Amino acid sequence: MGSSNEKAVVMTVPGDRPLELAILGCGAVTEEFHLPAAGNSRHMRITLLVDKDLPRARSLAQKFNVPSAADNWTNIESHAEAALVALPHHLHAPVTIDLLKRGVHTLVEKPMALSRRECETMAAQAQASGSVLAVGLVRRFYASFQFVKRALDEGVIGDVTEFDFREGQIYNWPLRSGFRFDKKSAGGGVLVDTGSHVLDALLWWLGDWESVIYYDDAEGGLDANCELHLRLRNGATGTVELSRTRRLRNTFILRGRRGTIDVSAGAKSAVRLRVGDHQVFLEGTAIREGVGPENLHDALRRQLEDFAGAVRHGQPPLVPAAEGMRSVDLIEECYESRRPLALPWDR
Fold first, then answer.
1. At 31, which CATH number?
2. DSSP code for 30
3. How many domains does the chain have?
């Protein structure tokens, strides 16, 4: 981060018209999630799609009524005030830095970058240009995750002493390219992909980490399974297990001195609250008052609207650069200190 104590003046756009947004990257996630989510918001208008596969960009532009498509962002300023970067992970930092230099407000998908140094450079450029930089950690917009955050902050289960996070399934995320399985462009396997979300939730809920012992099965390639054994600065200890090849429990358990919270991983996730060690517990779906249950598209729309609000009004986004880099820092430490994961056939 920059050493200056002066607060950057964030350039805003008038609040009485939709934010003009370009999307860089026309993969399956953009088609199935980002474009539909943006189309359901009155606060923004997609004005440009960019992809190196120009026919693909033009096809999606026609499908979603986007006025322009291109195979580069050279003239992005003539089309949009802001951009969503949904490119392969190794491009997040250089593309975001270039956009910020142009004064383009930027929402970059997770992971923010592939190293803390890249994250710090991105944050410094946002500070220098006065542009908004937000990170797409969409689970922070899940009603269930926000409920857990508030419950922990209010001390509902007391100080958390232990945690046990498990998320895994046979990989089935929609893909248009193979970049997630290429070490150079993805930067890592399940730890970078699913782990960016899971570790962000852990650090958001409980605070910074103190030490980690990390195991994975990469063996020189990409990790499909990994385990982290963590101690946090608040004294809590626990385990995070992630997998692309096995279905795990897919819940996050937080044990406090006065009770336990257990939340599942999805957008419409159930929350279980147990007071003390009583055999009776409360279980249900967290919903927003007056709204009802929401899905992933709703969370993505809220993320885009939070970004638009930051651009319009100069307010901090829910996930600014300083927050987005926390999970990157932990992931980088894990890969630097990796140990081989014991596999069933090794025992």
1. 3.40.50.720
2. I
3. 2
pTM: 0.92
As given in the structure block, the two tokens for residue 61 are 């532009």
| CA atoms of 245 and 226, how far apart (whole Å) | 11
Q: How many degrees, rounded to 5, is the angle at CA 115 between CA 332 and CA 191? A: 45
Question: Tokens 């088609």 label which residue?
Answer: 31
- Asked if the structure places residue 3 within a domain, the reply is no
92 and 165 together in one domain: no
Quote the domain boundaries for residue 257: 140-294+328-346
Do residues 29 and 127 share a domain? Answer: yes
| 86-to-7, 121, 132, 147, 162 alpha-carbon distances in Å | 28, 19, 17, 28, 35
CATH of the domain at 256: 3.30.360.10
- Please give the chain's pLDDT, 347 residues, in tens: 333 333 444 455 555 689 999 999 999 999 999 999 999 999 999 999 999 999 999 999 999 999 999 999 999 999 999 999 999 999 999 999 999 999 999 999 999 999 999 999 999 999 999 999 999 999 999 999 999 999 999 999 999 999 999 999 988 766 667 777 778 888 899 999 999 999 999 999 999 999 999 999 999 899 999 999 999 999 999 999 999 999 999 999 999 999 999 999 988 889 999 998 888 888 999 989 888 888 999 999 999 999 999 999 999 999 999 999 999 999 999 999 999 998 776 76
Q: What DSSP state is assigned to residue 266? A: S
Q: Is 193 helix (H, G, I), strand (E, B) or coil?
A: helix
Strands (E), 110-258: 133-136, 160-168, 209-216, 225-232, 237-243, 251-256
Query: 330, 313, 319: which is closest to 210 by C-alpha?
Result: 330
Residue type, 331: I
> In terms of domains, do 158 and 285 share one?
yes
Instruction: Report the SS3 class of residue 100.
Output: helix
